[in-house]
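Need residues for this backbone.
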């Protein structure tokens, strides 16, 4: 397998894309080229996103996928895609469409067909899903909501630092699309039976409230087993695992997995 030298990082809901910078520095040192494109409507900085939430409002999964596909089309080779949360779902869609050479989905949002709904995931999503009129809006998390959904596995001090540094408003539409995928809509559908795709790693954080490991395990079981489809559980970790003090553990595991699979 030819080694891909480009990684496209994809952020999820509520965390700005600049949060990938330490990952980009880490992989640059290992010889990879790295990109962290914005979602449609994202502003360049956290402060600008907070000041202009309507710019990101009413963006759906397919619009976001197409924006990444357009960027990927400009690259000289199929990249590796690494996504977190909803970014992990978007990364899987891109892989399943043959647009990436490999994929790491870190604690991803559930794809269509994953029916499990743990209480913690429901509670973490209720600030958005509790009001159907939110679908066209962009919403920010309060600190208490972020603490529960993202930063429950770190100290209070670190949780506040992460909240202040990285959180931004996020479009509500993707959450509604995921929540209704079992009976309507195809935007979160992944072609899990594509046997020409590249290797896939899905991770789960043991203490993740937003995307509990049961969701990632259910997703990996849907893939055709003739193609590499791995799952990794990170013990003691919550949904903030890509930005908190233990981020390097995840990055190093990701690097080793890529190298093991010729990427």
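Answer:
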């Amino acid at each position: 397998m030819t080694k891909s030298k480009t990684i496209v990082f994809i952020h999820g809901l509520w965390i700005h894309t600049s949060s990938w910078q330490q990952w980009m520095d880490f992989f640059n040192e290992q010889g990879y080229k790295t990109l962290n494109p914005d979602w449609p409507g994202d502003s360049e900085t956290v402060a600008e996103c907070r000041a202009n939430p309507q710019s990101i409002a009413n963006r759906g999964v397919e619009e976001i996928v197409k924006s990444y596909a357009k960027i990927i089309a400009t690259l000289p080779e199929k990249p590796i895609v690494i996504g977190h949360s909803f970014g992990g779902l978007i990364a899987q869609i891109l892989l399943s469409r043959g647009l990436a050479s490999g994929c790491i989905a870190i604690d991803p949002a559930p794809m269509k067909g994953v029916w499990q709904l743990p209480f913690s995931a429901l509670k973490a999503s209720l600030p958005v899903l509790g009001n159907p009129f939110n679908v066209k809006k962009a919403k920010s998390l309060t600190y208490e909501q972020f603490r529960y959904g993202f930063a429950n596995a770190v100290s209070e001090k670190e949780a506040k630092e992460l909240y202040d540094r990285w959180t931004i408003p996020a479009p509500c539409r993707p959450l509604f699309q995921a929540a209704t995928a079992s009976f309507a809509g195809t935007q979160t559908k992944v072609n899990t039976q594509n046997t020409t795709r590249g290797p896939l790693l899905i991770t789960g954080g043991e203490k993740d409230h937003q995307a509990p490991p049961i969701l990632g395990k259910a997703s990996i079981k849907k893939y055709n087993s003739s193609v590499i489809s791995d799952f990794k559980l990170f013990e003691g970790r919550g949904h903030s695992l890509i930005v908190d003090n233990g981020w390097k553990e995840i990055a190093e595991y990701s690097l080793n997995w890529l190298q093991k699979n010729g990427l």
